[in-house]
Amino acid sequence: MSVLRSLLTAGVLASGLLWSIAASAATPSTPENGERWVVTQQRNPDAACLDCHKPDKEGMHGTHASVINPNNNLPVTCTNCHGNPGPHHREGAKDVMRFNHPMYSVEQQNSVCLSCHLPEQLQKAFWPHDVHVTKVACASCHDLHPKQDTMKVLNDKGRITICVDCHSEQRNNPDFNPAAVKLRKEQP
């Protein structure tokens, strides 16, 4: 019985060895024209983000939820703006961009926004962009995922109120940090 078992085991090992030799000898195939294969993403890059961060059943709101990056014509995804979360993401690791968070400088936060929004276009839209783009985080004035960005619907009086409130706070608060400002916005 043990001789039979030994022969059976040797046969299984020999066939496994033959299969592994045949697999390692095979060359990977390439497209007929000699180019490299193109790998396309199989899952939605936002799916894991939306599992935890969806404001409601409809997903994210606002223009960032369905916009195309004008510089590369690709859809904007969570990871485009916030980066790829690491294994310690839930513990507050500095692995994704958190807007209006003092761990990120104004330059770091605004560089994400300026990867799509060109400074010339922003300055044409409203002159304070030109003055504040290096001094105040974009997210200090703009809501990123609302149904409607309050700043876009403000009238002139509302804009002046925001300017006065922020500059008063800056003057009166020695610990004023423009990378962590969250303005109180008046409704139009």
UniProtKB/TrEMBL annotation:
A Gene Ontology biological process annotation? anaerobic respiration
Classify the source by domain of life.
Answer: Bacteria
Q: Which GO terms describe its cellular component?
A: periplasmic space
Q: Which organism is it from?
A: Providencia stuartii
Q: What is the lineage of its organism?
A: Bacteria, Pseudomonadati, Pseudomonadota, Gammaproteobacteria, Enterobacterales
**Keywords for the protein's UniProt record, in alphabetical order:** Oxidoreductase, Signal
Please give the PANTHER family that the UniProt record associates with this protein: CYTOCHROME C-TYPE PROTEIN NRFB, DISSIMILATORY SULFITE REDUCTASE SIRA
Q: Which GO terms describe its molecular function?
A: heme binding; nitrite reductase (cytochrome, ammonia-forming) activity
Q: What class of enzyme is it?
A: oxidoreductase
Entry-linked SUPFAM superfamilies: Multiheme cytochromes
Keyword field contains Metal-binding: no
Q: Report domain Cytochrome c-type protein NrfB-like positions.
A: 78-166
Note the Gene3D superfamilies from the entry.
Cytochrome C3
Record-linked InterPro entries: Cyt_c_NrfB (IPR017564), Cytochrom_c_NrfB-like_dom (IPR053875), Multihaem_cyt_sf (IPR036280), Multiheme_Cytochr_ET (IPR051829)
Protein name in UniProt: Cytochrome c nitrite reductase pentaheme subunit
Q: Its Enzyme Commission number?
A: 1.7.2.2
Which residue positions does the secretion signal occupy?
Answer: 1-25
